[in-house]
Amino acid sequence: MNQKLEQLVLLVLVSILKIISIKAGGQQCQAITYHECKNIGYNETDLPNKFNHQDQKDVALVINQFTALIAVGCSVELRFLLCSIYMPLCLTNYFETIQPCREVCERVRVPCEPYYIRYGFLWPDALKCEQYPSSSENSICMDPKKHEVQSKPSSKLLINSRPSSPSSLSSSASVAVAAPSLACCHCNTSLGYRRLHDGESKKKCSLPCYSPYFSDEQSKSMMNQWLAFLSLLCAISCAFVILTFFIDITRFKYPQRPIIFLALCYFFISCGYL
């Protein structure tokens, strides 16, 4: 008994020493290799982030959804905001996540949110400014241009105006019109995702997470109602099969008996949806 107790104490001490050594070693920072997040004021990040993105490829799939908005140029700080959220600054001897300041987020949201609203998109939850600390609260946060607002003053005019020539399409709202409809999350070929647009099939493309199909409240409500109805129907039918089995167990012999196991599995799955 004493020998087992000694082994347990030794195991606990080794675990504590292991944790202390990891903490003493500092954070494992990694160099930023994703091109959109280079030259933004820092060059090292720490992953996985709070969204559980494991590597820079995962982050790239998310930030690529905002490529069209970056190209429109509604705010020169948009790229910094996205990178500071999804690829936060990493300091070797500081273990807390350093977030962007709320002021940066608001300077980006004011000129850029109208593009989302105009074309039926909701402002992403990750970019909602209320969740980020303000520099006036003496919190540690990042603001690259604290005393200078760099957002485009004519962003509203840009939305409502037409380009004066075909060559100016790249800086007009026409880019914003086309971008949401063609935006996609790029996937591995093995997943087999295809997206149809104007009769054309685009390979390795799935709907972006913030598309109106998933963000529209009416669509989400209808989807939840249908899921609840179908799950209830499935649960009732499976329960009926299971009860029939318990009433007369000898009636269900092999090879019919696996149907009972399938019904039991689907019953629990439908309960999960309910």
From TrEMBL:
InterPro entries: Frizzled/SFRP (IPR015526), Frizzled/Smoothened_7TM (IPR000539), Frizzled_dom (IPR020067), Frizzled_dom_sf (IPR036790). GO terms for biological process: canonical Wnt signaling pathway; non-canonical Wnt signaling pathway. Residues 24-144 form the FZ domain. GO terms for molecular function: Wnt receptor activity; Wnt-protein binding. GO terms for cellular component: plasma membrane. Keywords: Developmental protein, Disulfide bond, Membrane, Receptor, Signal, Transmembrane, Transmembrane helix. The keyword Disulfide bond applies. Residues 1-26 form the signal peptide. The keyword Signal applies. It comes from the Eukaryota. Coiled coil: none annotated. The chain crosses the membrane at residues 226-247. Disulfide bonds join 29-90, 37-83, 74-112, 105-129. Pfam families: Frizzled, Fz. This is FZ domain-containing protein. It comes from Rotaria magnacalcarata.
